[in-house]
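Now for a typical sample entry:
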Amino acid sequence: MGTNQRHLGKTIVSLMAILLGLLPMVVLLASWNSIPQSIPAHWFGDFIDRWGQKWELVIFPVICLISGFLLSFFSAKQNLKNSDDARFMVASLMVALFGFSAFSLIHIYLSLQARTFATLQLYGATLFYVLGGLIYILFGVIFSVRPIITQQDSYKPLRVLFILAGITILLFCGTGILKGNASLLLLILVNVLLAAFSLIYSRFR
C-alpha cells in the first residue's frame, strides 16, 4: 500500500471516529428542549423497570465524544506504523464506538417518545436487541478481514460464531419471535457461549 493510500485511509478512519463521537452529543443538544424530565432509563426484557432524569442522557454522549477523539488520535498514530495488528485493533475499536454511539442515539430517540408509553413498550427493548445483533455481525466481519491482513485463517471459527450469534439475536429477539424473559435469556445464553468458546479457542488454537 502506497504512502498516499495509507494517508487517505488514516484520514478517513480519523474522521469517522470523530463523527461517531460527535453525533450523539449533537443530536442530544438539538433535542434537549423536546425531551421530558422523566425518561426510560432501563429495560428488563420488554418492560421498563427504571425511570430516570434526562440529564442521564448526557453520560453516553460524553463517553462517545472522548472515545471518538482518542480513537482518532490512536488510529492516526498506529496507521503511521503500518501495523496489521494495529489496524485490526482500530477496526475493532471503531465497531465498539459505533455500538456506543448507536446505543446513545436509540436512548435519545426512546426518551423523546417517553410520553407515548405504548411505543416504548413495543419498540424499546427490540431496538437494543437489533443493535446487539448488528454489532455481533460486524465483529464477525472484522474477524473475516483479519486473515486477509495477517495471511492466516485461524480466526474462521470465531467469525462464523459471531455472525451466527448476531443472526440469532436479530431473528429471535429483534423480530419479536421471543419476548420478555425469553429474549433476555437467549441473549444471556449467546453471550455465555461466545465468551466460553472464545476463551477455550484462544487457549488451545
Notes: Residues 117-150 form the longest helix (34 residues). The CA atoms of residues 99 and 155 lie 22 Å apart.
